[in-house]
Amino acid sequence: MNGARPGEDRPSAHGLQPARRWWRRVLVVAWIAGAVVVWNMVFDAHIVKGARNYVDRQQLFIEGRGPHVDMGGAMDEAKAAGLRAASLWAGAELASGLALAGAVRIRNRRRDRDGLTRASR
Q1: From residue 89, how far is each of 24, 37, 71, 100, 102 by CA, in Å?
Q2: What is the pLDDT of residues 48-91, one digit of tens each?
Q3: Sign of CA dihedral 99, 104, 107, 109
Q4: Number of Cβ within a 10 Å radius of residue 28
Q5: What does the alpha-carbon distance between residue 93 and residue 32 come to, in Å, rounded to a whole number?
């Protein structure tokens, strides 16, 4: 025995060493968290834009230069636009991250299958 713990020096049943699998999971979770942050930022930007638009239209109404504005209707428009835009941006960010993780996984499996290591490249 060389003092190593079981499974430390050899690949697992999945073909990856435990440390490599752990880092891949951490990166995927971080990418998902990033997609959640993107969704929140885009949605918030649309809500803020809708609120400013409502205030501007309400000011025109007060000055007699525009029609009455319903706050609920104005914010519903902003909410719907925000949901669409935020979901598209977060979905694109999430899809690109998962595609990248999949590509790295395929590359690593091919490298392991062909017996390539960092030292032999």
Answers
A1: 23, 11, 26, 17, 20
A2: 999 999 999 999 999 999 999 999 999 999 999 999 999 999 99
A3: negative
A4: 14
A5: 9
- pTM of full prediction above 0.90: no
Q: Confirm if 87 and 38 have CB atoms less than 8 A apart.
A: no
Please tell me the distance from the alpha carbon of residue 111 to that of residue 27, in angstroms, as a whole number. Answer: 20
Q: 10 Å Cβ neighbour count for 35?
A: 20
Other residues' Cβ atoms within 10 Å of the Cβ of residue 71:
13
Contact 87/39 with Cβ under 8 angstroms?
Answer: yes
Three-state SS across the chain?
Answer: CCCCCCCCCCCCCCCCCHHHHHHHHHHHHHHHHHHHHHHHHHHHHHHHHHHHHHHHHHHHHHCCCCCCCCHHHHHHHHHHHHHHHHHHHHHHHHHHHHHHHHHHHHHHHHHHHHCCCCCCC
